[in-house]
Fold:
Amino acid sequence: MPKERLYKKYAKFYDKIYAKKSYVEEVEFVRSVMRKFKAKGKNILDMACGTGTHAKLFSDSGFRLVGVDINREMLKIARKKAKNAIFLESQMQSFRSKDKFDVITCLFSAINYNRNLSELKNTIMKFYELLKKGGIVVFDLGFIKGKKGRIGGAKLDTYSEKGLQIARIGQANPSKDDPDVCKIDFLIFIKNKGTIDFEIDEHELGMFSVREVKNTMAKAGFSVKIYGGFTLKKFTNKSKVPIFVGIKK
Ligand SMILES: C[S@@+](CC[C@H](N)C(=O)[O-])C[C@H]1O[C@@H](n2cnc3c(N)ncnc32)[C@H](O)[C@@H]1O
Structure:
């Protein structure tokens, strides 16, 4: 996926569209996982950090935060938002660092930006390398192979405040070339202080089964737990989204 097709003009409206997303709960969940598995240390890597909302919440509560994202526009916003964090531009698949981390997060379906099993393996092995012994990785799998839920129809999200109206239509379909890749096209209409603009955003996401992800993590060396939603309840088929937690043994 050429990165210039993702979140260009739309980056500055990303936080508006996701204004109701429960970032606080997600950060609380990660902290409860850290307590449960006795993660020591304060160094967190937030992979595919986007506009840095998780990063800000972590760094405001005393963690040293490094955020990594492929998208320069998203990173500009993150840098303004979380002044004490460090932000780096890189693909998750090729990120390198001399430093090792106590925790790695990769949230809001960002793990699905690995388009096939080989990319996923590479990324998970990278997470393993980047963690200290006893370190923890946490990510959600928003797009699951074979799960129809988000595939097919169209979804409309809107946001409005004085002088600004946003409407975003999203369509998710299996790619013609590979049924395990989900293609999401967004058409975003923005009316900002009377000026109308629009953007087309295209995303390609790899879909994996829960078992594939679990096996990939186990092969990389992780001890794996799967929770249901951002809670410490075990994942079942009725859970909202699987949250994978890997502990580096
Ligand atoms: C759905 S957003 C999630 C952002 C953030 N984690 C959040 O919860 O708001 C996905 C993010 O992944 C980034 N991204 C996509 N592909 C990536 C890749 N290969 N490596 C690093 N970041 C990537 C995008 O630029 C975008 O900021």
In short: Residues 165 and 191 are 5 Å apart (CA to CA). Residues 6-7, 48-50, 53-54, 69-71, 74, 91-93, 107-110, 113 surround S-adenosylmethionine (CB under 6 Å). The radius of gyration is 18 Å. The mean pLDDT is 94.
